[in-house]
Amino acid sequence: MRGLVAPLVSGTTYRRAVHLLLGAVLLLPYVLLGVAFAGMFAVPGAPYGLLVLVLALVAVIGLVPPFLRGTRALEIAAARSLLGVALPDPPVTAEPGRAGRETRLRAALWFAVHLVAGGLVGLLLLIPLVMGLAFAGESLGIVSGALDGMWLGPLDRHGSLWLGLLGVLMPVGVLYAVAGLGGLAAVMAPVLLGPSSSERIAALEARAARLAERNRLARELHDSIGHALTVTTLQAAAARELLRTDPDFAGRALAAIEETGRAAAEDLDRVLGMLREPDPAEAPAFAGDRMAGIADGGTFGIIGDGTAGFADGGVRPVGGSSEDGAPHHGLADLGRLVEHSRGTGVEVRAQVVGPVAELSAPVSREGYRIIQESLTNVLRHAGPVPVAVRVAADARTLAIDVTNPVTGSLVRREGGRGLAGMRERVILLGGSMSAGPDGGRWKVSVRLPVERPR
Q1: What's 402's domain CATH number?
Q2: Where's the Signal transduction histidine kinase subgroup 3 dimerisation and phosphoacceptor domain (predicted)?
Q3: Residues 184 and 241 in one domain
């Protein structure tokens, strides 16, 4: 019983009725023009040739709206709000070729269906509903004389009881018919107004691009801020332990904490800058050059006593700018990265072989992040142990190897997002990576294809 009454009291029925009546409103100009032309053609001696030309022109104009992209957008909005159908917004740009024509034809067919269904609902409201109200009013004595001279099959104005019953049933039947037509429209709307296959593919590609960007930002935050927090925590702990016995070391550790915090703030500002919408009116900002001592083909080492040296004594500008002007780290920053690990007591030996400075920005940036995360994992899981970092570049491949002695349980290395983030970076560049124990050591080995800047 509840199922029979539900369409009569549901707000969905009446919202869908409004949607169908919009079709009747859109149909009205076509009906009026049809009646007007029918009347003109019925006049004897009318200029039929001119009327045919005008009729053809009006027909062409009348056929244009169903094929407009704006009409489809309006129909989608109406179907979404009144029919309760989940339809995505149409794309901003029109589809090219056959897919675009198919989409326009489906939208035009929906426009025609909307007009026809609206016309049927309009007729139902004008004829059966009005007649039903007249029958009910006559039977109840609310109105008189409304049925004079009217008969409906075996019923006439003297069968007031049956006419009254029919007057109650006809509006109910109209509501059921409207509910049925509205439900049919809700079923057909996704078919005729829904996205085409190319639009679905474009939407999936856009979603994949957004997910990729989110993952990239997550990796940037994890690698840069995570490394800074790890280094800061270990340096703070060392400074607290040696504050009274070795104040000079504690001072260097605090200075390193300050520098690490500033670098982390720069990285955080850069990542947040990626989330901001660019303002074309603003002039691009360019970061100043920084200097670091990584020589092409040279060797840079930092050992426990804090001494540092370069094989050729040369210096190189480090860092760079992304396309939006935000600074980013690259392999030229390796000296600064290794120096940040000094305050933790880690003995790091870094060897750079080959033309690292000629690497493209994406490869250099991802290589830097991989080494950074590798050093962070060493600090987290092995503590202050000797670490060997080797970076070798040639015309085809960038090779990165980071090794350290294994201490404690290897189970701890399975947690976190460090290795997973490194693998994601490697996969995105089409490289290969291995990480695991190797003869009493833990070794991370990465090979990245080199992209020559154009």
Answers
A1: 3.30.565.10
A2: 213-278
A3: no
